[in-house]
């Protein structure tokens, strides 16, 4: 079993032991992911990047990734494939010669 | 190389070809992750869960996972480990006998 | 009519001309608010605070405030009252002698 | 003094008593706003729109509006003006004859 599928299985088992699939529609999973992303951001609020508490970053990042894996499972999405596809697409939006050393959005390049 | 490390390498190579490490401090990576999570949520706005466009979900979820992988790499975080640790911690916050069939937050159980 | 009620009326008229009340349940209004807040944040991504484009800030902040006003109207909330109440509550969580010159969260003071 | 200016003054006084202006750069204010918007959304997570706790909605919405007012003050933005301007702009993006009874985004109308 792949590393990602293995993590998904752990999360699904956790969910099913609690009979939570009934709450895990895609809209609420996406919302939960966003809320956890926001809790991750709170660790940096009013601070410099290097001042965040790393243990708390691990905790919140784990929640974000957990919901991302559950949402992917919901749609039977192949995570490796979508990341590879997106990198390819971004390579077209951000060609090296235009984007190098430049943080502008593609529509402002 | 593990599946997750392999994806991280693809993302890091993409970043480095564009000389973007200079922008990728942890605070802005977390912010980028949150913005992508929000774009994912926009696919469900004013809609039922099952009405989102799946191809767009793949696209936005790939962005979320991409920034999560980059942030993990930034801190040299072992993704598998933090997810496993968090599931264990959540098992204590949400014991099966209290949480089964119940979507309440742990502090309201 | 108060300034806030007047703005709410403008937004409600806009909504009703388009027959959009059917989509504006509280959950989606809160989600829309969050998405606009995220678009506001995108104006600061990879940038220093002072580098955001002010005209775009106005645009996104107007969207945030618009949804906040619509959500308040949905619940018939008195905006002035809840802000005043919250400042009072925050005064108790963040007493001047503990919080002065300090950005810590109340539970870490 | 206008109702909005009056609320801003209450918030600024609260901030200044605690010497917090030093933390309130525009980027972190926008981030704080987004985090509060996310806490507002959490009140609806795994729930139907009508199941949120109204007292908590008031509390979180007050935080959102508080940061919106502080951010507007930071840029000396006239809130009434930007909302009126945005409604006008949205009227062009969402003409009644195309948008009526339809929740599609303007670029899909």
UniProtKB/TrEMBL annotation, chains A, B, C, D:
It comes from Mucilaginibacter myungsuensis. InterPro entries: dCTP_Pyrophosphatase, DCTPP. GO terms for molecular function: nucleoside triphosphate diphosphatase activity. GO terms for biological process: nucleoside triphosphate catabolic process. It holds the Pfam family MazG-like. It comes from the Bacteria. SUPFAM superfamilies: all-alpha NTP pyrophosphatases (SSF101386). This is Nucleotide pyrophosphohydrolase.
